[in-house]
Amino acid sequence: MRIVLDSNVIVAAFATRGLCAALFEYCVENHEIFLCSAMLKEITRVLRKRIKVPLSTVDEIELYLKDSTSLVKPARIDPRVCRDKNDLPVLGCALSSLSEFIITGDDDLLSLVRYEKIDIVTPRQFWERVKTRGNRRKRKDRMPKGRPG
Predict the structure, then answer these.
(1) CA-CA distance, 115 to 81, in Å (whole number)?
(2) Which of 51, 65, 75, 137 could form a disulfide with 95 if both were Cys (CB 3.0 to 4.6 A apart)?
(3) C-alpha to C-alpha distance for 19 and 117, rounded to whole angstroms
(4) 17-31, pLDDT tens digit by residue?
(5) 133 backbone φψ class: left, alpha, beta (φ>0; ψ -120 to 50)
(6) Given the DSSP bridges, would you call strands 118-121 and 114-115 parallel, antiparallel or unpaired?
(7) How many angstroms separate the CA atoms of 4 and 97, rounded?
(8) Residue 83 and residue 147: Cα distance in Å, rounded?
(9) Which of 61, 65, 37 is nearest to 51 (CA)?
(10) Which residues pair with 118 in a beta bridge?
């Protein structure tokens, strides 16, 4: 799947050990993650200034993100689409990368629920969808061939 992880999810992934960290690792290993330069800049700014991560560590995180994600130029989005204009690069990134999901903790983005063909979900909602899909696949894989599923 093609996915945009909002900057708040990525910051949480590096700042704490919890759902966002597990989700980030899962997505890096199993899906294509897309970012844009505005999102990358926001991630590094928040890690440095709000979370107070040492500059050398922020630099390492930035290099890791550049290596493990794809940077795209965001599509132009009509500013009337969302309440917070700072969310336009996230929507533009998802649109230009043909992503299926935006995973975010941002209430302004979450209030949209869907943009174009992109589902906008919380980390927990995405995790539940993935878990449900995985369980369905496992059950199908166990079914003997030739039997109706």
Answers:
(1) 9
(2) 75
(3) 25
(4) 899 999 999 999 999
(5) alpha
(6) antiparallel
(7) 9
(8) 51
(9) 61
(10) 115
DSSP string, 50-96: TS---HHHHHHHHHHHHHHSEE-PPPP--GGGSS-GGGHHHHHHHHH
The Cα angle at residue 65 between residues 86 and 28, in degrees rounded to 5: 105
Q: From 83, 71, 134, select the one nearest 107 (Cα to Cα).
A: 83
SS3 5: strand
First and final CA of the chain: distance in angstroms? Answer: 25
Q: What is the pLDDT of residue 146?
A: 40
Structural domains in the chain plus CATH codes: 2-131 (3.40.50.1010)
Q: Which DSSP category does 144 fall into?
A: P
For the record, the structure tokens of 115 come out as 């943009």
- Which residues on adjacent β-strands are paired with residue 5? 103
